[in-house]
Amino acid sequence: MWRTEYTADTSATPAAVWAAFRDIHTGVAAAAGGDVFEMDGAFTVGTELSVTPVGQDTFRSRIIELAPNERYADETTFGDVVLTFRHVFTPSDGGTRVTHELVITGQDADEIGPGLGPEISADFPEAMAGLFALAEASADPADPADPADPADPEDPDH
pTM to 2 decimals? Predict the structure, then answer.
């Protein structure tokens, strides 16, 4: 087995982070520099999806764990190894802590993991930043796109 994780914090609530995460993983939204996802059904355990990392070929994955606002995991099989991508959403002081984990298991995991794992996980910080940007933008009360925003100069009531 080979394992790595990346953890970061955002000021957005777990619900806002989860909503942005769900939108990215269902193909409703795209995070800058992030993977592109296409679902083959509902956003639920057992659903398969196509994932296209930036500049790479598309691969297939299957949702194996899903608890809204708490955790999500999908797995991809490549030959004799299984890649499990897990996200854990934890409330923190004034926001959310997200841990993105990659676990490589299977017959050749000990040999393949040290080379393949760092290649795959190298974009975790950038992907997390894209997720947080979407979550924070959706929760920003000063968002100029919000017609009810009192600071909106286009709002005729202000």
Answer: 0.83
User: Do 96 and 89 form a contact (C-beta atoms < 8 A)?
Assistant: yes
Residue 65 backbone phi and psi in degrees, to 5: -155, 135
Q: List the one residue out of 44, 51, 49, 43 whose CA is nearest residue 62.
A: 49
Looking at residue 138, its pLDDT comes to: 82
Residue 135 vs residue 153, higher pLDDT:
135
| Residues pairing with 6 in the sheet | 100
Contacts of 36 (CB under 8 A, 6+ apart): 27, 30, 51, 52
**DSSP readout, 96-150?**
EEEEEEEEEEETTHHHHHHHHHHHHHTTHHHHHHHHHHHHHHHH-TT-TT-TT-T
Region class of 68: left (phi > 0), else alpha (psi between -120 and 50), else beta: beta
For helices 124-139 and 14-25, angle between their N-to-C axes, nearest 10 degrees: 120
CB atoms within 10 A of CB 12: 25
pLDDT at residue 139, rounded to an integer? 65
Mean pLDDT of 57-65: 95
Query: Hey, what are 24's tokens?
Result: 């990215």
Q: What does the pLDDT read at residue 154?
A: 41
Taking CA 123 as the corner, what is the angle to CA 28 and CA 18, rounded to the nearest 5 degrees?
40
